[in-house]
Amino acid sequence: MTQGTIFKIKRYALHDGPGIRTTVFFKGCPLSCRWCHNPEGIDPRPVSMVKASPEGAVHETVGEVMEVAELVTAIEKDQLFYDESGGGVTFSGGEPLAQPRFLEAVLDACNRRDIHAALDTSGFAPAAVLDRLLPRLQLVLFDLKIMDADLHRKYTGVSNESIIENLNRIDGGLTPWRLRIPLIPGMTDTQTNLEQIARFAAGLKSIQGIDLLPFHRIASGKYRRLGLADPMAGIDPPSPDHVAAIKDRFESTGFDVSIGG
Ligand code: SF4
Question: 64-67 and 177-183 as β-strands: parallel, antiparallel, unpaired?
Answer without folding.
Answer: unpaired
